[in-house]
């Protein structure tokens, strides 16, 4: 199909390269400007446009034609033999009814172009920067944004030094060849969103060298526009930050070791002080009590004490009794004997009984554990969290109901403390107060997870999880014939927030 005779002279004298396509995308006709630009153009007739040019963003010819038919007019981008072209399309009527007219811009990348002296100076400067940069620089095509992603067009020498790949090994491939099993999916998702939105991005992730060794890289990508405003390439600057990451890890390990030593020292001091209170001061108070009893007995043998002395003696006995009780309470809080002798589940039961006896609050305890004892450092950490969380709830929330749950499942031991109080806003100040920071540090030092779920008017839930040695057997199944229990309501309510927690059946 050719343009009508009245259009031929105009068609061939237009300096812009023009094409006529039929409705199926086959090249039917082109003008002299196109023929002079593409010397092999006689062989193009009858071919589909996608067979001659690589059209960006459209995996098939049909997808490209669908856009053309929907939009009627618009712009596409294509490439041939390393040159980039813009295609401006519109219906060809009345020039050629039922055809598609395409105007093609001059190539925007050319090895034979003539540049001004100033432009040549800038090019030499940019080339020097790229060649001498200590950071790896990688240039890719602009599209496609979907899998497998833009292909690499250029890498500088620093890229080879960092990754071990020669330029010839990566040109034409995508940067995915640098990814491996430990490459963070969350960081890759950030890069993907940036590419789809034509925005710059900076991430830090693990890449892999040619020999398979992983390394940390600070990764910056920036989209680059051509003179028409069209995004033509992505430029990525990558810096090996493995040494910094190593130092950060060592600093964190040192910080954790120091914190662990402080906590262990505190617990040892608690034990020592508790023992001193019980064995030394406790015994002295007991001896003092015996002396008071001896005074009473001797006074009865000698017709009693003066009446004015009796009230003072009774007051002294009461004060002594209260002191003995207070010393016992302090010793028990410092390091409960039941915790060291019988383990965490029984210590939590004793804590429940004592707090309910001194507070008008219902504390519901649910324990689903397949053993009575765990490693001492795990028991102490979770007991301290339970203590702190319960005392915080009683002191600040004034609830009417508290749920205390302890369960082991898979490779984790979980403690949950939930109250129906007014809740609070979990800001920075709140994390530093109420002992929350100490609770969190204790659990994180054990490589555990610590979560606080609270909102004003909705109560508070504290969840602490610590990893268990992988030697525990699966949960023992419920005895045959036993009526199925109900799931604790607070646990069910929180299940949607803690997806890594298995559903546990709790019996009453």
Write up what this structure looks like:
With 508 residues, the chain is of the alpha+beta class. The chain has four domains: 5-104, Beta-Lactamase; 117-240, Beta-Lactamase; 250-335; 338-508, Heat Shock Protein 90, CATH 3.30.565. Helices cover 43% and strands 22% of the residues. The chain contains 16 helices and 16 strands. The chain has a six-stranded antiparallel sheet with strand order 2-1-6-5-4-3. A five-stranded antiparallel sheet has the order 8-7-11-10-9, with helices on both faces. Strands 12-13-14-16-15 form a five-stranded mixed sheet. A hairpin with an 8-residue loop joins strand 5 (83-91) and strand 6 (100-104). Helix 9 runs antiparallel to helix 10, helix 12 packs parallel to helix 13 (376-397) and helix 13 (376-397) runs antiparallel to helix 15. The longest helix is centred in the middle third of the chain and has 60 residues, at 242-301. The radius of gyration is 39 Å and the shape is elongated. Mean pLDDT is 76; it is low at 109-115 and 472-508.
